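Subject: mismatched residue count in predicted assembly?

I count 431 residues in my input, but I want to confirm that the predicted structure covers every chain. Input:
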Amino acid sequence: MTVAMCLSCARTASNAAAKTDAPPETILVRNLETPGAFEVENRGAPLAMYSQVIVQQMVEGKWQDRATDLILSETCDWNPKAGCRTLGHGAKLHPPAWNGLICSGQCPLGCRANAYLGPGSFRFVVMSCDQKQRFYGPAFTMPDYDHSQLKKKEG
Amino acid sequence: MAVTVSSNPSDFELLIAARPAPGVPSIEGNGMFFTASPIRLTGFATLLGNPGDSGAGWKVGFIQAQWVETNWCSYRGAVASDGSIFIQRGKAPSRSKQACRDCVDHSPMAEVFYNIGPNEGGVALGAAGRFPMVLRVRHQDQPRDRCPLTLQNTLTGRTNFLHEAQFEFLFCTLLSVQDPAGNFQHLMGVYWNVRWQYTFTQPGYRATVKPLGTGAVVGAPFRAGQIDHRFASVLTSPAETQSCNMIFRAATSAFNPGSPNRHESRVWTDFTVTAP
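Triage response: the counts match. Full output below for your records.
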């Protein structure tokens, strides 16, 4: 399991310049063993969190946002349009793992237009409700589709 | 000389980089998922102009239409007296129409192209610079759908289990150029499809493929001339506001009890799959 805190990652985020760096050791984004699996822990004061999770991909040495439908929720029946949710001190969230797809990447949806983003180096970014604070997870590697969890599920 | 699109056959191309295949259905949560492996296309077009001309405002990208959708699933109880259910998501009223323009969710329908995401490579923008100006793009799609594993039969009050499903998604993808005035010129295209038909038996939803209903085909890329009448009306029309993703998601209303696309029986029934 790898852990990253906001400050160290924010320094390398090419597109985070306009955002406010959050104080360290507040919101931690950890990668879990399976590529795309992650958890979010609040080590600081209760904080309202934005409903969407950003996926960034390392492209030519820079982190770039990729459009996906990831949400910061442990269940798929939560409507992200409902707004923000508060993460209390010490609270941990275990959202469904990202499978690499831009559509139905985490929760059960059908998709006609869709794409698998791997292989590549990615990281998750979660945000405060006002989107002014970004919390960066460590990099992880998504395999190509033939070696993905999606493909493995086909047996 | 105004900027133009080269019609020289060596100045544009659509290549198939990966061909799709229907993956074996797999269970995720309370659903049976049908996921294709990716189709990947690459293409390029060439703008011509004179010194002083600018390619700004020109776009090259892929436009995709889905022109056929077959989409049904049937359910059976553990015993015949538990009943059966047939869900039709490929026909009206749950599915409002067959042909649709296919755009990824973050790409507005009004932009017409399949994927205008700035980091996606789906659209290349012309710019000031030297001519000939070669604009390269890439395309990827990986259709996916699901059926709930179980439904409750409202006639018998018993749980019915996924018994059979068929999906057929037929597409045409075009390499197209849009000029600064918004006019489109289609250079090349390719027809492709992906199809599943499986039965499932209990316990454990053991999947058995129906080979005639399962497969994928990618046609030979062709020079686009007159657009196929079966989807010409949806290809670039600004009147199209519902993407294929939106249309089929709305069709999930077929699962709702009382939907005209949901048919229930008190016994095991072989439903007519062409019925609405």
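Chain A has one domain: 2-126. Marking this ticket as 'not a bug'.
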